[in-house]
Design brief:
Blueprint (H helix, E strand, L loop, with lengths): L18 E7 L4 E7 L13 E14 L4 E4 L4 E4 L6 E16 L10
Antiparallel strand pairs: 1-2, 2-6, 3-4, 3-5, 3-6
Length: 111
């Protein structure tokens, strides 16, 4: 067993508009925290692995080519590999617990 400390906890990004910190990696999955401050910009590209977001703090919109939804604490979002998505209109500092399966970047280099 491993207790992963700090996962999903808000931490003000350093330089830039967002911050991703990977806190666990195995061959089958990776877990980390993604934070975007109020008014920040989400500049991520689609990933080549499946992804689950759990909103632990904050509020924003998540936008895909097919749908837009408001999300807040407790929301769980599944994104298929390759699906374009972006968080916009961050109205409260956003902290997300993120789970990638298999591990982030393990299929091919991320863009």
């Amino acid at each position: 067993m491993e207790i992963i400390k700090g996962t999903g906890v808000w931490a003000h990004p350093g330089e830039g508009d967002s911050d991703w910190v990977e806190q666990l990696r195995t061959s089958d999955l990776s877990v980390g925290t993604y934070c975007i401050p109020v008014g920040g910009r989400d500049a991520q590209s689609p990933h080549r692995v499946d992804e689950i977001y759990v909103v632990t703090a904050g509020r924003a919109k998540i936008v895909t080519p097919d749908r837009t939804a408001m999300v807040g604490p407790g929301a769980v979002i599944f994104m298929r590999a390759g699906e374009e998505h972006r968080f916009t209109d961050v109205s409260e500092d956003l902290a997300l617990l993120v789970v990638f399966g298999p591990a982030f970047g393990s299929r091919m280099p991320e863009r």
